[in-house]
Write a structure and sequence with these properties.
The chain is mostly helical and 369 residues long. The protein is built from 18 helices and no strands. Helix 4 (67-79) packs across helix 8 (138-155) and helix 6 crosses helix 7. The protein is globular, with a radius of gyration of 20 Å.
């Protein structure tokens, strides 16, 4: 019972540390999502070109961090005319480059991990573009679009939340804030289970899974060389980390506390970074891809993304090693989440009030309508 209490306490402590960042990130995300329509995205992303993945990445940067919302949005812009490669770039960036994810990484693991994750998303997009240039069968593309159009038609869905008008009009109007409140509410409705599950799982794993287990699946450098592991260790860690993510069934936000746990258990920097991108190969995500596009394209896409996250994780590791930026401190989760009356306490109170106001505004509007 003491261990169970410690596990819940650790998970709750991690959530408390990151709570203000989560709320702040989703407020920003909700505000941005009302400005750009998916029709506009599709017109810009309709053909293939070296600049297009970067444009798709910028759209993903300002989108939702919920993995399943990202899957739906990626399918939506594909159906509206975006090239499959640009759709993949949007998918990668909307799960790795989003604002709220970076803020939470900054709070839990520090600025180096935030920068590394941002670089991971950019490199995964570049590698995905390069690999798809080498091999993306036309039959896969035709089958993918056919399945995507049929799935979206069967669901009868269009989740575009944007409104017309200038930036100033949207920001200063009641309709603008009503829409921000609605999107904010919808974002939390989609991700609260994923976030709660992710932090709880991280707490239980940190307490109940012994170090010997992690040493068995992740190669670790001998002695004091954990911060300068050999290439085989970095490669093995990057290959194994996405497999761990496959079995956790957790999305991008839920992966952050598990990444913090892996770092505290001596996984290499490259392995932890590869794990942060591995929400795109979780079992549930692959199943949704199959539902949207059919199994042929789902397996192709999952294999492509797996290769990209492994290669990007290794690349980030050695780029950081080259400039001496690999973090050296490995605090335990208990140290990370120790409760105190500090800036986190007051920021949580402020953003809890702001979040409550937005939810109240949405529920009032829903009741009126």
């Amino acid at each position: 019972m003491d261990q169970i209490v410690e596990a819940f306490t650790t998970g709750a402590g991690m959530l408390w540390k990151a709570l203000w960042a989560l709320i702040f990130g989703y407020i920003i995300s909700a505000g941005i999502q009302i400005f750009v329509t998916r029709d506009q995205m599709a017109r810009v992303l309709g053909d293939r070109g070296a600049r297009k993945p970067s444009i798709a990445g910028s759209f993903g940067f300002v989108s939702s961090s919920c993995s399943f919302a990202a899957l739906a949005a990626s399918r939506s812009i594909l159906v509206k005319g975006a090239h499959p490669v640009n759709s993949i770039a949007f998918l990668v960036s909307s799960t790795n480059l989003v604002i709220e994810l970076g803020i939470v990484l900054l709070v839990l693991l520090g600025w180096k991990f935030m920068v590394a994750n941002f670089l991971l998303g950019i490199l995964m997009t570049i590698y995905a573009y390069a690999l798809s240039l080498m091999w993306l069968p036309r039959s896969f593309v035709e089958s993918e679009k056919e399945h995507a159009e049929k799935a979206q038609s069967d669901e009868g869905m269009d989740t575009d939340q944007t409104m017309k008008g200038s930036f100033r009009d949207k920001l200063l109007s009641r309709e603008g804030w009503d829409r921000i409140a609605r999107v904010f509410f919808m974002e939390w409705k989609m991700v609260w289970k994923e976030i709660l599950f992710g932090f709880t799982v991280a707490g239980f794993i940190s307490v109940f899974v012994p170090q010997s287990f992690w040493n068995a699946i992740f190669l670790v450098a001998d002695g004091g060389a954990q911060d300068a592991p050999g290439f085989l260790i970095v490669l093995e860690n990057a290959l194994v980390a996405p497999v761990v993510a496959f079995f956790t069934f957790i999305g991008s936000m839920g992966n952050v506390p598990l990444a913090a746990m892996l770092w505290s258990r001596d996984a290499s920097f490259g392995g932890v970074i590869a794990f942060l991108g591995a929400d795109l190969v979780a079992a549930t995500v692959i199943w949704v891809h199959a539902k949207y596009y059919g199994w042929q394209y789902a397996l192709y896409l999952s294999g492509l993304l797996y290769l990209c996250m492994v290669a990007a994780g290794i690349t980030v590791h050695y780029l950081f090693a080259l400039v001496g930026m690999i973090p050296t401190e490995r605090p335990s989760l208990q140290e990370m989440v120790r409760f105190s009356i500090d800036y986190t306490f007051f920021l949580n109170l402020i953003f809890l009030v702001i979040g409550a106001i937005l939810i109240w505004l949405h529920l009032r509007n829903a009741k009126e309508n």
